[in-house]
Amino acid sequence: MYEEYYGFKELPFNVTPDPRFLYRSASHRDALAYITYGIFQKKGFIAVTGEVGVGKTTVVNAFIDLFQPSLEVAFVFTTKFPFDQLLYLVCNDFGLEVDGQNKAQMLLTLNRFLIEQYENNRNTVLIIDEAQNLSPDVLEELRMLSNLETRDRKLIQIMLVGQPELETMLNLNEMRQLRQRIPGICRIPILSREDLEKYIEYRLDIAGKHNGGPVFTQDAMDEIFHYSGGTPRLINVLCDRALLIGFVSTTRTIDGRIVREGIRDLENKEAPVTQRRNRPM
Ligand SMILES: Nc1ncnc2c1ncn2[C@@H]1O[C@H](COP(=O)(O)OP(=O)(O)OP(=O)(O)O)[C@@H](O)[C@H]1O
Ligand SMILES: [Mg+2]
Fold this sequence. Notes:
Layout: H1 3-6, H2 26-40, E1 45-50, H3 56-67, E2 71-77, H4 83-93, H5 103-119, E3 123-129, H6 136-145, E4 157-162, H7 164-170, H8 176-179, E5 186-188, H9 193-206, E6 215-216, H10 218-228, H11 232-248, E7 253-254, H12 256-268
Parallel strand pairs: 1-4, 1-5, 2-3, 3-4, 6-7
Helix pairs in contact: 2-3, 4-5, 10-11, 10-12, 11-12
The chain binds adenosine-5'-triphosphate (ATP) and magnesium ion.
């Protein structure tokens, strides 16, 4: 809506986990390095955790984008499925035809597929996002799945991605057998104040910012940090709102006042800002 006014090619603050927009803060870089190491060193299991909206799915997508040609990936989002339903989704995502098969048959189909991938030197990765929803029973079955191996290596790498509750679950005493197989857990923290600024600038650049594009003042950055606490998704929602307010008030300088108005909008869920065009600020 406001892209043209600011001269963007696309919206800078979408809330989709688009890896092209990934700003590599030290911790997002570490997370990418951890995933790459775990997958290519064939650790069997890796786990990435972080609060809601810190960028877990975006980092995983960036990893897939980087290494796509050498990977065979199944990406599933879990709700509270029993294992056989999860297995069905996994097989499906690997492109395997398993309709009507029972659990044992699906496991056999999957095993054959994994050996085939192994023989073709392909790295098979199962990514389970929202893994905090997995039950201990399903986690135990996944551990068994990761036991599929040749003499010298694991046939499938399993990546668990989820909110901090996942880590709590993995630390339960009954989970220790699985926990021991995970080489540390990678935690993605919220952004620091310094990173927040670079993050915003980075996303503006990727969206095509050039001279004459919007300028966020320091005061605006402070307000955004205060509101979002450094959580990227909240930053995006607020920046998007602030840019919209800038657009309707025909200013490309996004200052603290505009951001505060954006916060009020978001908190009060007032009438959309576009209906208030030209009113005095
Ligand atoms: N380092 C980053 N660089 C650019 N954008 C980011 C970064 N981290 C997060 N984002 C953006 O923040 C939003 C939320 O990210 P994402 O969906 O990856 O979070 P999440 O941790 O998977 O959240 P949830 O726990 O709800 O699944 C997305 O729009 C994403 O592009
Ligand atoms: Mg996510």
